[in-house]
Amino acid sequence: AFPTRVLARLGVRILIATCAAGGIASAAAPGTFMVFRDHLNYQGSNPLAGPHDARWGERFVDMSEAYDPQLRALARRAARTCRLKSFEGVYVALLGPSYETPAEILALKKLGADAVGMSTVPEVLTARQAGLRVLAIATISNRAAGISKTPLSHKEVLQVGRSAGRNLASLLGYLLPRLKDQ
Protein backbone atom coordinates (compact mmCIF):
# COMPACT_ATOMS: atom_id res chain seq x y z
CA ALA A 1 0.00 0.00 0.00
CA PHE A 2 2.88 2.40 0.66
CA PRO A 3 3.89 2.84 -3.02
CA THR A 4 0.27 3.73 -3.84
CA ARG A 5 0.30 6.39 -1.13
CA VAL A 6 3.56 7.78 -2.52
CA LEU A 7 2.09 7.95 -6.05
CA ALA A 8 -0.97 9.79 -4.73
CA ARG A 9 1.19 12.30 -2.82
CA LEU A 10 3.20 12.86 -6.04
CA GLY A 11 0.00 13.88 -7.84
CA VAL A 12 -0.98 10.70 -9.69
CA ARG A 13 -4.76 10.78 -10.24
CA ILE A 14 -5.38 7.40 -11.96
CA LEU A 15 -4.06 4.02 -10.85
CA ILE A 16 -4.02 1.14 -13.33
CA ALA A 17 -3.38 -2.09 -11.44
CA THR A 18 -2.61 -5.37 -13.19
CA CYS A 19 -2.28 -8.87 -11.84
CA ALA A 20 -2.52 -12.55 -12.66
CA ALA A 21 -5.58 -14.46 -11.51
CA GLY A 22 -7.13 -17.89 -11.56
CA GLY A 23 -10.27 -18.16 -13.64
CA ILE A 24 -13.55 -19.16 -12.02
CA ALA A 25 -16.16 -17.83 -14.49
CA SER A 26 -16.72 -19.69 -17.74
CA ALA A 27 -15.37 -16.64 -19.65
CA ALA A 28 -12.19 -16.73 -17.56
CA ALA A 29 -10.00 -18.89 -19.78
CA PRO A 30 -6.20 -18.67 -19.60
CA GLY A 31 -4.92 -15.74 -21.62
CA THR A 32 -8.11 -13.67 -21.37
CA PHE A 33 -8.32 -10.39 -19.48
CA MET A 34 -10.78 -9.51 -16.76
CA VAL A 35 -11.60 -5.88 -16.11
CA PHE A 36 -12.50 -5.60 -12.42
CA ARG A 37 -16.11 -4.56 -11.85
CA ASP A 38 -15.82 -5.14 -8.10
CA HIS A 39 -13.92 -7.23 -5.58
CA LEU A 40 -14.21 -9.34 -2.45
CA ASN A 41 -11.45 -8.77 0.09
CA TYR A 42 -10.86 -12.07 1.84
CA GLN A 43 -7.23 -11.45 2.72
CA GLY A 44 -8.04 -11.05 6.40
CA SER A 45 -6.61 -7.55 6.57
CA ASN A 46 -7.13 -4.03 5.27
CA PRO A 47 -4.33 -1.48 4.75
CA LEU A 48 -6.64 1.27 6.05
CA ALA A 49 -6.80 -0.34 9.51
CA GLY A 50 -4.61 0.95 12.31
CA PRO A 51 -3.40 4.47 13.06
CA HIS A 52 -4.89 7.07 10.71
CA ASP A 53 -2.96 9.84 8.99
CA ALA A 54 -5.27 12.45 7.45
CA ARG A 55 -2.70 13.07 4.66
CA TRP A 56 -3.70 9.67 3.23
CA GLY A 57 -7.36 10.62 2.84
CA GLU A 58 -10.62 9.98 4.65
CA ARG A 59 -10.68 7.39 7.42
CA PHE A 60 -13.78 5.63 6.08
CA VAL A 61 -13.81 5.15 2.32
CA ASP A 62 -16.88 4.53 0.16
CA MET A 63 -16.19 1.55 -2.09
CA SER A 64 -19.49 1.65 -4.01
CA GLU A 65 -17.57 2.30 -7.23
CA ALA A 66 -14.05 1.21 -6.41
CA TYR A 67 -13.38 0.68 -10.12
CA ASP A 68 -14.09 3.77 -12.21
CA PRO A 69 -16.95 3.13 -14.71
CA GLN A 70 -15.45 5.39 -17.41
CA LEU A 71 -12.06 3.70 -17.16
CA ARG A 72 -13.72 0.27 -17.29
CA ALA A 73 -15.58 1.26 -20.47
CA LEU A 74 -12.32 2.53 -21.98
CA ALA A 75 -10.62 -0.78 -21.11
CA ARG A 76 -13.41 -2.79 -22.75
CA ARG A 77 -13.13 -0.60 -25.86
CA ALA A 78 -9.36 -1.07 -25.86
CA ALA A 79 -9.72 -4.85 -25.69
CA ARG A 80 -12.18 -4.86 -28.60
CA THR A 81 -9.95 -2.57 -30.65
CA CYS A 82 -6.90 -4.75 -29.94
CA ARG A 83 -8.98 -7.89 -30.65
CA LEU A 84 -8.32 -9.34 -27.22
CA LYS A 85 -10.68 -11.56 -25.27
CA SER A 86 -11.90 -9.82 -22.15
CA PHE A 87 -14.83 -9.67 -19.77
CA GLU A 88 -15.86 -7.72 -16.68
CA GLY A 89 -16.02 -9.51 -13.38
CA VAL A 90 -15.58 -9.73 -9.65
CA TYR A 91 -12.11 -10.49 -8.29
CA VAL A 92 -11.61 -12.14 -4.93
CA ALA A 93 -8.35 -11.53 -3.08
CA LEU A 94 -7.11 -14.25 -0.76
CA LEU A 95 -4.00 -14.30 1.38
CA GLY A 96 -2.07 -17.12 -0.33
CA PRO A 97 0.58 -18.22 -1.03
CA SER A 98 -1.16 -21.57 -1.50
CA TYR A 99 -3.62 -22.00 -4.32
CA GLU A 100 -7.22 -22.54 -3.31
CA THR A 101 -8.96 -25.87 -2.78
CA PRO A 102 -11.79 -26.97 -5.07
CA ALA A 103 -14.24 -26.47 -2.17
CA GLU A 104 -13.01 -22.90 -1.65
CA ILE A 105 -13.42 -22.15 -5.37
CA LEU A 106 -16.96 -23.58 -5.33
CA ALA A 107 -17.82 -21.38 -2.34
CA LEU A 108 -16.25 -18.30 -3.96
CA LYS A 109 -18.18 -18.96 -7.18
CA LYS A 110 -21.43 -19.07 -5.17
CA LEU A 111 -20.46 -15.69 -3.68
CA GLY A 112 -20.13 -14.20 -7.18
CA ALA A 113 -16.38 -14.38 -7.77
CA ASP A 114 -15.21 -14.61 -11.39
CA ALA A 115 -11.46 -14.74 -10.72
CA VAL A 116 -9.20 -15.29 -7.72
CA GLY A 117 -5.78 -13.99 -6.77
CA MET A 118 -3.50 -12.88 -3.97
CA SER A 119 -2.93 -9.20 -4.69
CA THR A 120 -4.34 -5.90 -6.00
CA VAL A 121 -7.05 -5.19 -3.43
CA PRO A 122 -4.75 -3.54 -0.83
CA GLU A 123 -3.46 -1.15 -3.51
CA VAL A 124 -7.02 -0.40 -4.66
CA LEU A 125 -8.21 0.34 -1.12
CA THR A 126 -5.30 2.70 -0.57
CA ALA A 127 -5.80 4.37 -3.95
CA ARG A 128 -9.49 4.97 -3.28
CA GLN A 129 -8.67 6.40 0.15
CA ALA A 130 -6.38 8.89 -1.60
CA GLY A 131 -9.13 9.80 -4.08
CA LEU A 132 -7.51 8.13 -7.09
CA ARG A 133 -9.58 6.75 -9.92
CA VAL A 134 -8.85 3.04 -10.36
CA LEU A 135 -8.80 0.59 -13.23
CA ALA A 136 -7.71 -2.99 -12.53
CA ILE A 137 -7.12 -5.69 -15.12
CA ALA A 138 -6.30 -9.33 -14.42
CA THR A 139 -4.60 -11.65 -16.86
CA ILE A 140 -6.32 -14.97 -16.37
CA SER A 141 -3.35 -17.28 -15.98
CA ASN A 142 -5.05 -20.60 -15.19
CA ARG A 143 -8.38 -22.21 -14.42
CA ALA A 144 -8.97 -22.37 -10.67
CA ALA A 145 -8.77 -25.56 -8.61
CA GLY A 146 -11.67 -27.91 -9.22
CA ILE A 147 -12.40 -26.18 -12.53
CA SER A 148 -9.05 -27.06 -14.05
CA LYS A 149 -8.78 -30.61 -15.33
CA THR A 150 -5.14 -30.73 -14.21
CA PRO A 151 -3.35 -29.90 -10.94
CA LEU A 152 -2.42 -26.24 -10.56
CA SER A 153 1.15 -25.33 -11.40
CA HIS A 154 2.98 -22.11 -10.67
CA LYS A 155 5.15 -22.84 -13.69
CA GLU A 156 1.99 -22.77 -15.88
CA VAL A 157 0.88 -19.49 -14.29
CA LEU A 158 4.24 -17.90 -15.12
CA GLN A 159 4.19 -19.30 -18.68
CA VAL A 160 0.73 -17.91 -19.44
CA GLY A 161 1.73 -14.60 -17.87
CA ARG A 162 4.77 -14.36 -20.12
CA SER A 163 2.83 -15.29 -23.25
CA ALA A 164 0.02 -12.83 -22.44
CA GLY A 165 2.52 -10.02 -21.78
CA ARG A 166 2.50 -8.82 -25.36
CA ASN A 167 -1.30 -8.62 -25.37
CA LEU A 168 -1.29 -6.73 -22.08
CA ALA A 169 1.27 -4.31 -23.54
CA SER A 170 -1.04 -3.74 -26.54
CA LEU A 171 -3.99 -3.14 -24.26
CA LEU A 172 -2.08 -0.66 -22.11
CA GLY A 173 -0.57 0.94 -25.23
CA TYR A 174 -4.09 1.74 -26.40
CA LEU A 175 -5.27 2.90 -22.96
CA LEU A 176 -2.46 5.14 -21.76
CA PRO A 177 -2.60 7.86 -24.44
CA ARG A 178 -6.37 8.10 -23.96
CA LEU A 179 -6.20 8.75 -20.22
CA LYS A 180 -5.48 12.43 -20.79
CA ASP A 181 -9.07 12.74 -22.05
CA GLN A 182 -10.46 11.11 -18.91
Can you describe what's shown?
- This protein has 182 residues and is α/β, with parallel strands linked by helices.
- It has helices at 2-9, 69-81, 102-110, 121-129, 154-178; strands at 14-23, 33-42, 86-94, 115-117, 133-143.
- It has a five-stranded mixed beta barrel.
- Helix 1 runs parallel beside helix 4 (121-129) and helix 2 (69-81) packs across helix 5 (154-178).
- The longest helix has 25 residues, at 154-178.
- The radius of gyration is 16 Å and the shape is globular.
Mean pLDDT: 94
The run of helices and strands is HEEHEHEHEH
| Radius of gyration, in angstroms, nearest whole number | 16 Å
Strand order of the largest sheet: 1-4-3-2-5
Instruction: Provide the β-strand percentage band.
Output: 15-25%
Separation, N- and C-terminal Cα atoms: 24 Å
* Biggest beta-sheet profile: 5 strands, mixed, barrel
Given the helix and strand composition, which structural class is it? alpha/beta
